[in-house]
Amino acid sequence: MRKKIVAGNWKMNMDLNEGLALAEAINSHYAVNPPDGKEVIICTPFIHLGMLSKLITASGVSFGAQNCNDHRSGAYTGEISAAMIKSTGAGSVILGHSERRTLYGETDELLAAKTAEALRNGLRVIFCCGEVLAEREGNNHFGVVRRQLEKGLFTLTTEDFVKCIIAYEPVWAIGTGVTASPAQAQEMHAFIRQLIEGRYGGEVAAETTILYGGSCKASNAAELFANPDVDGGLIGGASLIKEEFCNIVSAL
Ligand code: 13P
User: Fold this and answer.
1) CA 3, 159, 229 angle in degrees (round to 5)?
2) Is the beta carbon of 97 within 6 A of some atom in ligand 1?
3) What is the pLDDT of residues 169-204, one digit of tens each?
4) Fold of the CATH domain 10-28+40-53+60-96+105-213+228-251
C-alpha cells in the first residue's frame, strides 16, 4: 500500500522563532493524536532545519527542505548542499517547485542533477510538476507534465525512483485560491501513474505516492483526497496555520 502523506511547504515564511513555535505546535498535536499511518512532513526554510531534529519527536512526523544545490560542495556562495540538509536530520527535500522553475530558471536537466544528488545523500525527493494556465488552455497540460517527469525524474533507476514522491501542482492553482477540480486532479494523477507504469512497471506505479498541491485547504481537502489516485497534499499557505494544516491531515 502506498503511503498517504501531507507535506507543508512553508516557502519563504516564518522567522526562526515563529517557525520553531509552529513546528512545536504541530509536533505536540501529533504526539497526542498520532497521524494514524499517515505521514506528516513540514518543509521549512533552511534556517529552521538544524533545530528541528530535537523538536520533531512525534512518530509519523518529519521535516525537510525546499531546495538543494546540485553540487556536492565547494565555491557556491549562498548555496546549501544535500549533504548539509541530511546532516540536520531532515528526511526530504522538495525539488522542481514551479516557483523555482519560473523565478530561478531551474531546468529539467538541473532538476535531474539535483534529484540525483539528493538521493545520493539519502534524502527523499518530493518532485513537483505542473502546467501553467496557458498550457492547460492550449490543451498541452499532459505534454508538459510528461516532459517534466521524463526529463527531470525518469532518468533515475527503479531503486532510486521508489524513494521519490511526486507532487502535481497546477501552477494556476498555486496561491490563487482556485483549486483544480477533484476531476481535474484525478485525471492528471491517473495520467502520471500511467507514465510511471510505462517507465517502471505496474508495481512501482501502484506504490508511488502522488500528492496534489495548489490552494488545498481544510475546506476542500476531503473532496480532493477522495480521488483514488490522490494520495495526499503538498500544502502552501494553509500549512502556516496549525489548525488548518492539522485539519487537512485529518481530511486524508
Ligand atoms: P498554496 O497551497 O499556497 O496554493 O501553495 C501550494 C504550493 O505551492 C505547495 O508547494
Assistant:
1) 30
2) yes
3) 999 999 999 999 999 999 999 999 999 999 999 999
4) TIM Barrel (3.20.20)
